[in-house]
Design goal:
31% helix, 12 strands, 60s Ribosomal Protein L30, Chain: A, 6-stranded mixed β-sheet, 4-stranded mixed β-sheet, Phosphoribosyl-aminoimidazole Synthetase, Chain A, domain 2, 332 residues, 2 domains
């Protein structure tokens, strides 16, 4: 008799994984969630207080950053990255995250590794007001090698239609405020893995591996608090494509973002990558270079915005301004 386990899929290990995951998912649930993990689908009712509620969704993964987690056998932070990549995107339109679902794929399931990943996912949800209401763990022998894992997620948020941030308020002269990143975040790791030879090498007291696994910063709580006091004209999450691709995504009209490269500090890891041979253009076209979120605000409130962000525990800088014409980014 041939069993599913003979084909490479261990159902019992899957049951064990779900049991371990429930501990982490339970702590994220809010009063809007109508059921728990184990149903065929998660159910969430819309919270009160919205006049014309609009649902905003986003999906992403952690890319090849998880390959470093696999090599270093540290899986408890990549889940934060997965949440961050999704919720930071929907935040750009002014949305508050409601719920999150994850997808873990592997060649052979290890329940302890899977629960460690979900531990990070739940931490990311706690940092962003999101409830972890479900997900999928797929064991696929033959598709993935033994020990391989992949991770992706899906977030849904909510915003009043009249409060959507879509770039329509951006105008010439607006100030660009950059909020610092926590490091490389979750983009450009195929390039990182090509140029980094030794994850045990020490850079300013930490190994390169530790620095590269630093989880992506989640901007939800400080930015939502900021939105209650200031009119944010536009937002850009600096992910894959760096400054050149992402900053113009907040513009609806033909504007150029003039950004001063020396207006904010860079973490040492970025200079390390330059020293490894990556030229500056590709650095700004691939990585966040120390700025994970860019806000466009009226120039009259720029200092107040920076001060408020600092009061909220964030490092923020005026990194440039909006110019008419050109349609892109000018780094000076």
């Amino acid at each position: 008799m041939i069993t599913y386990k003979d084909a490479g899929v261990n159902i019992e290990e899957g049951y064990k994984a779900v049991k371990l995951m429930k501990e982490y998912t339970a702590r994220t649930l809010t009063s809007s969630v109508l059921n728990g993990i184990g149903s065929f689908a998660g159910m969430v009712k819309l919270p009160e207080g919205y006049k014309k509620p609009v649902l905003v969704s986003g999906t992403d993964g952690v890319g090849t950053k998880i390959e470093i987690a696999i090599k270093l056998k540290k899986f408890d932070t990549v889940g934060i990255d997965c949440v961050a990549m999704c919720v930071n995107d929907i935040l750009c339109h002014g949305a508050k995250p409601l719920f999150f679902l994850d997808y873990i794929a592997c060649g052979k399931l290890d329940s302890l590794i899977a629960s460690d990943i979900v531990k990070g996912v739940s931490e990311g949800c706690l940092q962003s007001y999101a409830s972890l209401i479900g997900g999928e763990t797929a064991e696929m022998p033959g598709m993935y090698n033994l020990g391989d894992y992949d991770l992706a997620g899906f977030a849904v948020g909510i915003v009043d239609e009249d409060e959507i941030i879509d770039g329509s308020k951006i105008k010439e002269g607006d100030a660009l405020i950059g909020i610092t990143s926590s490091g490389v975040h979750s983009n450009g790791y195929s390039l990182v893995r090509k140029v980094v030879e030794n994850y045990d090498e020490v850079l300013e007291g930490r190994t390169i591996g530790e620095i590269l696994l630093e989880p992506t910063k989640i901007y939800v709580k400080p930015v939502l608090a900021l939105m209650k006091k200031f009119d944010i004209h536009g937002m850009s999450h600096i992910t894959g494509g760096g400054f050149y691709e992402n900053v113009p995504r907040m513009f609806k009209d033909n504007f150029t973002a003039e950004i001063k490269k020396d207006s904010f500090p860079r973490q040492p890891i970025f200079q390390y990558l330059i020293n490894k041979g990556v030229d500056e253009y590709h650095m700004f076209n691939t990585f966040n270079m120390g700025i994970g979120m860019v806000l466009a605000v009226d120039s009259s409130v720029k200092n107040h915005v920076i001060n408020e962000l600092k009061a909220l525990g964030e490092e923020a800088y005026e990194i440039g301004k909006v110019q008419t014409g050109g349609g892109g980014v000018c780094l000076i």
